[in-house]
């Protein structure tokens, strides 16, 4: 891997130090990120009906975005791989999908876990 020119390396060290010494800037930026995250999450939830597809549970604290065909299905290959949860980039991308409702649904925590068991999505089933 080619190493960065010295001037860039110095600049990035300087930036890192600067950010460390300006916690208010960090907090502001994190806050903005958080805001966007919630906006896209709300948009996805709204497009998916704001309720569990099976039992109509509506408390969003226990609602989860579910990959209808299982997260390893090739239909989701065009999306960045999500590591467990859903990052901001992932949410933004799916929020804008025309066929969102064909690929994703909302499930309450109970139905999400039950589905995971039925679809054997757990690693320990894969032998
Ligand atoms: Zn449910």
Describe this entry's structure for a reader:
The chain is mainly alpha-helical. It has a single domain, classed as His-Me finger endonuclease fold, CATH 3.40.1800. The chain is 49% helix and 8% strand. It is built from five helices and two strands. It has helices at 6-20, 23-47, 88-95, 100-103, 109-118; strands at residues 63-67, 104-108. A two-stranded antiparallel sheet has the order 1-2. Helix 2 (23-47) packs parallel to helix 3 (88-95). The radius of gyration is 19 Å and the shape is elongated. The two termini are 37 Å apart. Bound molecules: zinc ion. Residues 52, 54-55, 57, 107-108, 110-111 line the site of zinc ion. The site of zinc ion has 8 residues, from strand 2 and helix 5.
Strand content: 5-15%
Largest sheet properties: 2 strands, antiparallel
What is the number of helices? 5
Shape: elongated
Strand order of the largest sheet: 1-2
CATH architecture: 3-Layer(aba) Sandwich
Structural class: mainly alpha
* Oligomeric state of the chains present here: single chain
Keywords:
binds zinc ion; mainly alpha; 127 residues; elongated; 2 strands; 5 helices
Structure summary:
The protein is mainly alpha-helical and 127 residues long. It contains 5 helices and 2 strands, in the order H-H-E-H-H-E-H. It has a single domain (31-126), classed as His-Me finger endonuclease fold (3-Layer(aba) Sandwich).
């Amino acid at each position: 891997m080619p190493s960065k020119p010295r001037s860039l390396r110095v600049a990035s060290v300087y930036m890192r130090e600067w950010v460390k010494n300006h916690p208010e800037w960090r907090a502001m930026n994190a806050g903005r990120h958080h805001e966007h995250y919630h906006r896209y999450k709300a948009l996805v939830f709204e497009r998916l009906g704001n309720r569990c597809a099976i039992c109509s549970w509506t408390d969003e604290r226990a609602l989860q975005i579910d990959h209808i065909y299982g997260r390893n299905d090739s239909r989701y290959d065009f999306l960045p791989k999500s590591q467990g949860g859903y990052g901001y980039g992932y949410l933004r991308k799916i929020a804008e999908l025309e066929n969102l409702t064909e690929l994703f649904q909302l499930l309450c925590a109970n139905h999400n876990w039950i589905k995971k068991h039925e679809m054997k999505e757990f690693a320990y089933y894969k032998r």
